[in-house]
Amino acid sequence: MDRAAFACSTAFFRDYSSASHVAVCLPQGHVDYIEKVESFSYSDFFRDYLIPNHPCIFSAKFTEGWGSRRNWVTQDGKPNFDYLLQHFVYISGKAVVPVANCDAKEYNSNPKEQIPLKEYISYWKEHIKKNYQSPRGCLYLKDWHLCRAFPEQDVYTTPVYFTSDWLNEYWDTIGLDDYRFVYMGPKGSWTPFHADVFRSYSWSANICGKKKWLLFPPKQEEYLRDRHGHLPFDITAPDLQNSSIYPRYAQSCPPIEIIQEAGEIIFIPSGWHHQVYNLEDTISINHNWVNGCNVAIMWSFLQDELAAVQREISEWRDTMEDWHLQCQVIMKSCTGIDYKEFYNFLKVIAENRISVLNHVLDEEASAKNTHRAATSALGMLHAVFDLKRTVQVLTSLNANEDFKKLNPKSLSPPPEALLHHLKAAIDTALL
Ligand SMILES: O=C(O)CCC(=O)C(=O)O
Ligand SMILES: [Fe+2]
Asked: How far is ligand 1, taken at its centre, from the CA of residue 77, in Å?
C-alpha cells in the first residue's frame, strides 16, 4: 500500500460512522473494466473499489497462467471432464461434492446434497446430451472447498488485490473452515438472490463459460421486500410486479447487469445483493473475504443478526436466566459466528499485524506463514491500517451493551488490555 492510499484510508475512516455507511452512486449503473495488469496497482484497487465499495471487472489477462485455465478447459472453451475425472476422481482420491438443485426451492435457497464428483460429472455429460433437460433437473455443484481438499493441485493464485483477507486468515489459523470455493454447473444453473456471508466481499473468476450477474447496491433490497419483510428468492419472478405482495417494488432501481466472460474476474462489494446465472457450461472459483475496509460492515451486520435473534425469542427474556447467552448460541448456529468469536477474530488479525510490524518475519517464517508473508508484501502501512481498523471496531464492540453482558473481562486478554496493547503498537509504528 502506498502513502497516498494510506492517507485516503485515514480520511475515509476518520469518522467511524462513515465506515459502515455505504453510499453508492454509479453513473448509470456503469461498472469499470480493468484491462491491463501492469498499470493497475494494489493501491489503485484499494482506493477506487475496496474503500468506496464499488464493483469492477478484471480482464482475462489477470487469470492468464492459472493451472485451472490451462488444464480444466478444452480447446473449444468447454469444461474438460476427462481432466477433472483424472485428477479429482482417479488419481487424488474420490471427491464428494455439494450439489444444489436449481429447480427446487427450500426456504429461500435450493436444496443441497453431497454426491461423488464422478456421479456429478456423469450427470452433467448426460444433461448436455439431453439438450439440458434431464429428469434430475438442473444440478449445480457449488461451495466446493476444492483447494482445501486438494492442496497439491496447481489451480490458481489469489490475485494481489484480494490478499488482505482476514476471513481466510482467521479460519486458516484456527484450522476449521475456509471461504474459498469452486462452482461448476451447466448452462441454465443459477444462484438465487442473496448477499454474501457476513456481508463479505466476493471475487469470482470464470475458468470457462459465461455468467450474468444482477447486482443491487446496498439498501436497494429494502424495496424488494414482500409485505412480511421477506426478500425474494428470484428477483425476476412475476410476483414482484404485484404491489399487494411487494408494495415497494415499483420504487426500486433496476439491477446493474453484468456479463462476465471466460477468464474474467468480478469483484462484488460488501452487502450488495445479487442473483447469478450460468449462460453456458461454467466453472468458477470464488473467495469471500473481509478486511479493514469492510470489517465495520460485517460488525454492523452481526449487530442486526443478534437483534433479529433477540426479537425472535423476546418472550423468554424475563424468565430465562441465561437469555443473552442463548441468543449468542442461536446467533452462532444461524450466522456462523457469535460476539466472542468475532472478538477472537479481531484479536488474531491484530496480533498477526503486530508480528509483521515487529519484523519477526524472517525468510523461514514467511515461507511457513503465507498470510503473514502476504501482509508483509502489502507493506508496513497496510499493517498499520489493519491495526487501526481493528482498534476502531474493537472499541465499538467493547462499548456494546450485548457484548458487556457476556463477561468480556474473562476473555484472554480482556478487551481493555488488548486495545491498550494495539494502540501502543500503532503509536510506535507511526513514530
Ligand atoms: O456464481 C454463482 O452462481 C454465485 C456466486 C456468488 O454468489 C458470489 O460469488 O458471491
Ligand atoms: Fe454471492
From this structure: 20
